[in-house]
Design brief:
Layout (H helix, E strand, L loop, with lengths): L1 E4 L10 E4 L9 E11 L1 H6 L13 E10 L11 E6 L7 E5 L3 E3 L6 H20 L7 E4 L5 H12 L4 E6 L5 H6 L4 E4 L7 E6 L3 H9 L1 E9 L9 H7 L2 E4 L2 H7 L1 H16 L7 E6 L3 H9 L6 E5 L1
Parallel strand pairs: 8-9, 8-11, 9-10, 11-12, 12-13, 14-15
Antiparallel strand pairs: 1-2, 3-4, 3-6, 3-15, 4-5, 5-7
Length: 307
């Protein structure tokens, strides 16, 4: 099978396509013939991390059909469509996925939407829920044009936000962010009218400004990027809260919530009210180009690879 691998640390230039034997599912795993792969910034960053063991085949969201079922796995049949998370080995024609991280795809959800919803959708919905969002509250989303950001804006609108603000680093993304439902668009570092909830995927200067924009009893949920130090006394004086969200913990420690969120996302997409934005669909051998787009922060929506 074809796969993308890197044997040294670095940027997009270290990715290469080679041939490898088709994997077999281990106990508790299924083997997926991959039709679509989601590219995400945390995975892109790993190629530059010295701590990543080599050689490494990037992980990510995979969508395809079940072609083999490992020992101890029940409730699946060969040929069934599925979407899931492979923490390694996703950039390939075949990928093994642990059963808890795989879910059936309804017939009315296409591959690209499934790739976006299985991870980015779960992050957007999970962050909104862990932030305690209630209808009528205002929401600020940083990294608003990204694969998580555009879905977070849509979900906040669907659930009755009184005002949704998108924060971006490039004015060229403003029209896109408004098109997915943002009432206002600001640049990173700007501080506008107070908001009740911040979903922060940008970190850095954007995080600091967003934190200052929180109203009393407001909550900032950090779900991505490198955050800045937070002064606990400042939080106390202003009655603000900061919450960390990692989807891996939600999926492994609260699987019933993870499964409920997954079905909710499928249903909203089937109703036509939640529409993941796809920036580009590229062949597997252009994985390096996909990583370049991600690192340049040029994407507006999800980037999808197709074997």
């Amino acid at each position: 099978m074809r796969r993308v691998v890197y044997r040294r640390h670095g940027g997009p230039e270290v990715l290469e396509v080679d041939e490898a034997p088709r994997p077999e599912p281990g106990e508790g795993e299924l083997l997926v013939a991959v039709h679509a792969i989601g590219v995400s910034l945390p995975v892109v960053r790993l190629s530059r991390a010295d701590s990543t063991a080599l050689p490494h085949v990037p992980g990510g969201e995979v969508v395809g059909r079940i072609v083999a079922i490992g020992q101890g796995v029940t409730g699946w049949k060969l040929g069934q469509r599925a979407a899931g998370l492979a923490f390694t080995g996703a950039y390939a024609e075949y990928a093994t996925v642990a059963a808890p991280f795989l879910s059936p795809i309804p017939d009315n959800v296409d591959d690209a939407a499934a790739v976006a919803l299985v991870r980015s959708g779960q992050v957007a919905l999970g962050a909104l829920r862990v932030g305690g969002f209630q209808a009528g509250e205002s929401v600020l989303v940083t990294a608003a044009a990204g694969s998580v950001g555009n879905l977070a804006i849509q979900l906040a609108t669907i659930f009755g936000a009184s005002r949704v603000v998108g924060a971006i680093g490039d004015d060229s993304k403003a029209a896109f962010v408004r098109s997915v439902g943002a009432h206002e668009v600001i640049r990173y570092g700007q501080i506008g009218d107070p908001v009740d909830v911040v979903l922060d995927g940008a970190g850095g200067e954007a995080q600091n400004a967003a934190l200052q924009q929180l109203a009393p009893f407001g909550r900032l949920v950090s779900f991505n990027a490198v955050g800045q130090p937070v002064d606990v006394n400042d939080l106390r004086y202003n009655a603000r809260a900061v919450i960390g969200f990692a989807m891996a913990h939600l999926a492994s420690r609260r699987p019933e919530v993870y499964a409920r969120h997954r079905q909710e996302l499928w249903d909203l997409n089937a109703q036509g009210v939640l529409k993941p934005a796809i920036h580009a669909t590229l062949p597997l051998d252009q994985a390096a180009e996909a990583h370049r787009i991600m690192e340049s922060r040029a994407s507006q929506g999800k980037i999808v690879l197709t074997p």
